[in-house]
Design goal:
This protein is of the alpha+beta class and 238 residues long. The chain is 27% helix and 32% strand. It has helices spanning 37-54, 73-86, 142-146, 154-161, 177-187, 220-227; strands at residues 4-8, 13-23, 25-26, 33-34, 58-66, 93-97, 107-117, 131-136, 166-172, 194-197, 210-215, 231-237. The two termini are 21 Å apart.
Amino acid sequence: MRDVLFLPLYQDEELVIAADGSAAIGLKEADIVHVPYETVAYFAARVALMEVMCVGAAPLAVVLQNFVHNEVWEALCTGIRTALGELHLDLPIVGSTESNFPTLQSAVGMTVIGMVHKAQKRIGTTPSDAKFAVIGEPLVGDEVMERRDRVLPLSLFRQLLHRTDIYELVPVGSKGIFYELQGLLDDNSLQSSQCSCALPLHASSGPATSLIISFDPNGEEEIKQMARDYFFPIEITS
């Protein structure tokens, strides 16, 4: 259920590919959400980057598909570089622009290519005694800008990524917390009859404004201190 593709590369390594897209978000008259193109690209890039990094891979390049027009290319690249900077990454950006036909609404596609050593893949690594939590809040559309202080910061994401007491991290997208949680449980052959959280379980988390983690119960207090009020425990009944 993860939105990540693994392709064999060498004996011990795999290519990792993740993508995100946004439409009707930008500065065209017919767009539904009106924000600068730097913001459009920033949030699309963060989704694909987080997907790649959450499975233990190192991002290598970003591919941008620009369906707006030529004039916004640099603004889109600026948004990508902002996301990269927050993650302490410096990656090449390549892509293409639709310049033959005008579009009524903005659209952007983002692909991140990475590489992972098979032994370092973070999928199916959650034991049966793990605990679960959401970091950040599910937001979509205008909510992302109006409540940006509730969006999982990439600086915090980096810190969580490097904790050895966190087993797996799963970005939450448009299908919501419950969907991603079920995928995480299935990957680990874990069962649940019921789950609860202070956050809405089926609300869209848009451009990965929140993240599910599975973690060692012994590290819970330190993780809470690090995540502060972004931390929302998930109670699971098996």
